[in-house]
Design brief:
457 residues; alpha/beta; Spore Coat Polysaccharide Biosynthesis Protein SpsA, Chain A; UDP N-Acetylglucosamine Acyltransferase, domain 1; three-stranded antiparallel β-sheet; 24 strands
Length: 457
């Protein structure tokens, strides 16, 4: 281990104002990385999870559901910038429907659930230093959103990127902010305790947390799920969905053979020669939605017993210090996944939920689906699917991968209710209503074209 590298990284964190739990956790994973721990989970060490409980088969009485949702906090992960889509601020500030952003729809979901269940239902965002200011500024338009005694957000920790060859903190004078990275969304637990928010939530009478990605509008407040989780007595529960051919890249749960414990395996934890097992939706039939439930009291006790280090498996992520420059030095980002906490808690469980609980937006293909007529937007901020099966959308990445380019060309979303797949190749502009049917393809004409005018008849 590079003692000088660790000392330099820790000094850098403390100089930047990092709290001690964050320093302790970073040091833990630095030592693992320097010892050669890769975090890889071998296929022969696990067996598939094939028969989880189904939410559709769960009976929760109304009072149990109300009591549980009244003690639930909704936490949204909001640290991502959506850089793969060309964004330079929080992805949740991106308009989804009718000029409303992810943030606006999340707030509508919260306010509607508060009215329905007469519950405080605090909403918290885990922001990064890049997303905090814009997010909080946007939320100022909702003066009734904060719950007395609780903040609207807490800050995700930042850690130094370390060089691959020396394990020293990288220096990048061209943009010193690129010397830092988030420790993955597994940092949510460290950030909760280090910020004091966990104690504040418990003092406010909260017992359960529902945690999900900010770009997943399907993961709204759910009293039935809250009631099921409260009744289970479990310390932790993961929401999972049946895998399809389109879900091969998503992390999945499995059962560790050594002790029968549920664990999460992600792409970065799979050996290259075992990716065929990982992506086999028949072998591993359920994927992890990154929606989870946690008992805050049991989380507090676990953190106290472990000195803020839950012991999540390391994800060893090698990247360029400047993600936009492939020639920039290689660095290591020491990360963890919040879903991996399932293996920390004895008695942790999982539940299969409807696909409606999973509506993420990682690309403009998925953004087009949300903006189209295959979803209806309710006054409660929820998007309801209007078709039995969502069509497959493939937009030419040369012209649609970046949000600005997408919005310039996709001015009017085509009707997708009667289409099985939509493939757009080339530089097409959609500026008038178009109805796609069956297997619809817009070919590359080698020139700019307008849908509804130039497509072949």
């Amino acid at each position: 281990m590079s003692e000088s590298g660790l000392a330099a990284a820790v000094a850098k964190m403390r100089a930047a104002g990092a709290n001690e739990p964050a320093v302790e956790v970073f040091s833990h994973y630095y030592r693992q990385a320097s010892a050669g721990v890769s975090g890889v989970i071998a296929e022969d060490s696990i067996r598939p999870l094939t028969d989880p409980p189904q939410l559709s088969a769960v009976a929760v009485d109304e009072q149990t559901a109300r009591d549980a949702i009244a003690r639930t906090v909704i936490i949204k992960l909001n640290g991502g910038l959506g850089t793969s889509m060309g964004l330079d601020r929080a992805k949740t500030l991106l308009p989804v429907r009718e000029g409303l952003t992810f943030l606006d729809l999340i707030v509508r979901q919260i306010m509607a659930a508060r009215a329905t269940y007469d519950a405080p239902l605090p909403l918290l965002f885990m922001n990064s230093f890049r997303t905090r200011q814009d997010t909080l500024a946007h939320l100022e338009r909702y003066p009734d959103l904060p719950v007395a005694g609780l903040p609207l957000d807490f800050l995700q920790n930042a850690e130094p990127k370390i060089t691959v060859d020396t394990l020293e903190p990288v220096e990048w004078p061209a943009d010193p902010t690129l010397e830092w990275c988030p420790p993955g969304h597994g940092d949510v637990y460290t950030a909760l305790v280090g910020s004091g928010v966990l104690d504040a939530l418990l003092a406010a009478g909260m017992k359960y947390a529902s945690i999900a990605n900010g770009d997943n509008l399907g993961a709204g407040p759910d009293a039935q799920l809250a009631g099921w989780f409260a009744s289970s007595g479990a310390p932790y529960a993961a929401e999972i969905c049946p895998r399809t051919v389109n879900d091969r890249k998503g992390g999945h749960l499995a059962i560790r053979k050594a002790d029968g414990q549920l664990i999460l395996r992600d792409t970065a934890q799979t050996a290259a020669d075992e990716m065929d097992y990982f992506t086999d939706e028949h072998r591993h039939p359920y994927f992890h939605t990154n929606n989870l439930w946690i008992d805050l009291e049991q989380l507090r006790d676990a953190l106290r017993g472990r000195g803020a280090v839950l012991g999540l498996p390391l994800i060893y992520n090698v990247k360029n210090v400047d993600p936009s420059d492939a020639s920039s030095p290689k660095v290591i980002q020491l990360e963890t996944a919040m879903g991996a906490a399932i293996e920390v808690f004895q008695g942790a469980t999982a539940i299969a939920v409807p696909r409606s609980r999973f509506q993420p937006v990682k690309t403009t293909n998925e953004l087009l689906l949300l903006r189209s007529d295959v979803f209806d937007l309710g006054t409660d901020g929820r998007l309801t699917q209007t078709v039995a099966e969502l069509p497959r959308v493939t937009l030419d990445s040369r012209y649609y991968a970046l949000v600005d380019d997408f919005q310039d060309r996709m001015r009017v979303a085509p009707s997708l209710r009667n289409v099985r797949s939509l493939v757009v190749q080339g530089n097409w502009t959609f500026d008038r209503p178009v109805e796609a049917t069956g297997e619809t393809a817009y070919p590359d004409l080698g020139r700019p074209a307008v849908a509804g005018v130039d497509e072949p008849r």
